[in-house]
Design goal:
This protein is an alpha/beta fold and 367 residues long. Helix content is 38%, strand content 13%. The radius of gyration is 21 Å and the shape is globular.
């Protein structure tokens, strides 16, 4: 019995009738772009988050980029974020024309270390983008306090953290804007690309909607901005509406799987993820650490267990970002050689979980 890293087909089967019906309704309607499903999903996702507004866009990367563009952050400006993230976070900054300034991470949460902000801020700094990595929130109280003292907007990268809580507040509702991805493997995933911006600023939401629709305002063919084409289509919105109803249930299952791993892997010598007392972890990824990571991964593969590394090369060591300001990154440099992501998808079965644990246990016993 092999254990896949993720099983999107099983996710589809669990909601097959509802998803098929939603897709058929869209196809039968003939409405493909900016229709009733997009409007309904924006309101439903906003209600679920507890945000005043949600503006949907074409991807999580575009969500970040369009917020920066809406805030008129571009050439000559600096934006602080982390190097240990999917490159998309930094791509959005460079796409806007701004300069990324990369800082180190907290050794327990792998999120932006607030203590690293002091040495990174300059007179050119225009925003901070904390990444709620792997499903654990960044320390938003400390980050927001620093940002407030320096008059900086905070843009939350929530691509991996739908429903995560920082001191009781859902991520995406704490900073000036929250940016979500609906890539198929996310905790709330579409059947293609998609993204959204959450905010309590109606003017910002309206500007992002306009920027994503060619810069057009409410009046058709009247363009307020030099915009982009970045829209969530009706099919994806209809699919996301169906899946949103199951998101809390899926989150609870992810937490159950993580709890199983925590108990079963205690005493193996592996570094296990933590959940800060002020946090609610949604376990987009279940990431362990081992100084023999590569050998462990080979051992798991031989046992039929798939695993992945998120992320093996930090952004400041990517050829495309050679020379970006990154300062001293001892934690990032250490963890990238030790981290390994285990299967944690909601549809994983008990026998599959046992297979993963047995494979990890045999590796530990072999030494």
């Amino acid at each position: 019995m092999d254990v896949p890293y993720v099983d999107l087909a099983a996710g589809y089967q669990s909601l097959k009738s509802e998803l098929d019906e939603a897709v058929t309704r869209v196809l039968s309607s003939g409405a493909c772009v900016l229709g009733e499903n997009v409007q309904a999903f924006e309101q439903e996702f906003a209600d679920w988050l507890g945000a005043d507004e949600v503006a949907t866009v074409g991807s999580g990367t575009d969500a970040l980029y369009l917020v920066l563009k809406a805030l008129e952050i571009g050439a000559g400006d600096e934006v602080i974020t982390v190097s240990h993230t999917a490159v998309n976070t930094v791509l959005a900054i460079s796409k806007a024309g701004a300069t990324p300034v990369l800082v180190d991470i907290d050794p327990e949460t792998y999120c932006l270390d607030p203590a690293a902000l002091t040495g990174a801020v300059s007179e050119r700094t225009r925003a901070i983008i904390p990444v709620h990595l792997y499903g654990h929130p960044a320390d938003m109280d400390a980050i927001m306090d620093f940002a407030s003292k320096h008059g900086l907007p905070v843009i939350e990268d929530c691509a991996q953290a739908h429903g995560a809580l920082s001191r009781g507040r859902k991520v995406g509702t704490i900073g000036g804007a929250g940016c979500f991805s609906f890539y198929p493997t996310k905790n709330l995933g579409a059947c293609g690309d998609g993204g959204a911006v959450s905010t309590n600023d109606p003017a910002l939401a309206a500007k992002i909607r306009s920027l994503g629709n060619c810069g057009q305002g409410e009046e058709r063919y009247r363009n307020l901005y030099r915009g982009d084409v970045s829209r969530l289509d009706e099919l994806q919105a209809a699919i996301l509406r169906v899946k949103l109803a199951s998101l809390d249930r899926w989150t609870e299952r992810r937490r159950q799987v993580a709890g199983f791993y925590q108990e079963a892997l205690a005493g193996t010598g592996l570094g296990l993820p933590i959940e800060k007392h002020w946090a609610f972890h949604v376990y987009h990824l279940y990431v362990i650490r081992s100084k023999e990571r590569d050998r462990l991964r080979q051992h798991l593969a031989a046992a039929g267990v798939q695993s992945l590394v998120h992320y093996p090369v930090p952004v400041h060591r990517q050829p495309a970002y050679a020379g970006v300001a990154s300062g001293n990154q001892p934690v990032t440099e250490q963890v990238v050689g030790e981290i390994l992501s285990l299967p944690v998808f909601p549809e994983i079965t008990e026998p599959q979980l046992q297979r993963v644990v047995e494979a990890l246990g045999s590796f530990s016993r072999e030494g």
